[in-house]
Amino acid sequence: MESDYFQKIYDNHFFDGEGRAVIAQLTEHLEYNIHNTSKKTIAWKSPEEELNFWRHYFESGRNKDFFEETLRRTTHIHNPKYVGHQVAAPAPITALTALVGALLNNGGAVFEMGMATNAMERIVTDVLCEKMGWEADARGILTSGGTLANLTALLSARRAKIDEDIWNDGLTKPLGVMVCEEAHYCIERAAKIMGLGEKGIVKIPASHNFAMDVTQLEAAYAQATKEGITIFAIVGSAPSTATGAYDNLEAIGAFANNYNLWFHVDGAHGGAAIFSRKYRHLLNGIENADSVVIDGHKMMLMPTITTALLYRNGNDSYATFSQTADYLLTEVDEEDWYNLGKRTFECTKTMMSMHWFVLLKFYGEELFDKFVTRQYDLAKDFELLLEQQQDFEIAVSPASNIICFRFVKPELNRGELNHLNGQIREQLLSQGEFYLVQTKLRGSLFLRTTLMSPFTEKQHLRHLLQTIRATAHSIN
Ligand SMILES: Cc1ncc(COP(=O)(O)O)c(C=O)c1O
Fold first, then answer.
1. Does residue 330 carry a pLDDT above 70?
2. Which of 163, 310, 332, 402 is the most exposed place for a label (fewest CB within 10 A)?
């Protein structure tokens, strides 16, 4: 009987038994990684080797060790020696909310399909809007990632600032967005998806510290206008990705106000500093933004993928995907904040609000204050440490928990240094003890670290520099 077949798939004992075993494995994984008895953050294999392994596995009769193999073959983000990409080491409770969300699978597009989580989403986005210093008519949504949130914000911006009915008629004239050349590539991608083309992304040069050179704004705006481009939005990065530099949000906001532009802040990485009493000042001026993006899965200790998109004026959130004015909060009998699919790109999405809700409910805002402050402080310590070494050079003083630096030797020219640092990073990757990345800044290759683990200490960073030095000497 078919029903017997499905009874087996959904068998309670299976779920309970496997579930307990997986939780036990993950607990051990956390224990090893956090207390660093596990030496490696990554057991690096080439893409072909990895593909072959999983092909064989797929075709074999094995399945008992599926979770074990997956653990072994992934990058261990909770390890204090993970200093790579900007992905959170999730607080374990959020792995439980992810599990619950996966099984309950309420998609949230309409209220009945997400009663609890849609209410939670309203509560947590209200908390975030309040942190921005906004009034009660501010609103937010949660969506699947900073990339999608930035695109949604720019669609809202165009809807709010351009009179033409682009939603129905398509583009009728050249439009543009201003952003620093150092901004995350997803802003350019969003502009291109929106049909703005190459000319529609007006890049403002960065100054020596890699933040937007706001003295260039007037000239860039005048030039774009001369070329017939109607600028409707300006984006500030808080911070930018490669170096972690915060743009001057006060200056950008004032400029936006002068020219009646939409002011968007991409705070995917460092918007969480709004919770840090010590570093909140980096976001001065954010209160004047029309929209702000903050990733939960970066500096807010949540699993991928969840992003808050916040609007100073809630009407703008309802207008994004609508051309008629029936969304206006003052014109409707009841604001249907609970039918989330109206305001998000997604129709169905994961039950992501649970992550935000449990962290705020169980640990309070203090968790984010402590976490952001600790990581940004640690970056300053790392900078000091680097300054004490003759054979290391830092790209720029860190404003956040992102630090770019490189090994130097006076006798090597730029090309040779780039080559050497590229080789160092390759060797570190294959050794697997540390995981860090690399980036090219103004033609020079730098090693790039983001201090994501709340367990990374100065001693790990000291050891990282020793390892790099030893690797560099072994290369020659
Ligand atoms: C500043 C900034 N914006 C946007 C993004 C993209 O966010 P996501 O990876 O959540 O799509 C990133 C990712 O690193 C980022 O650093």
1. no
2. 163
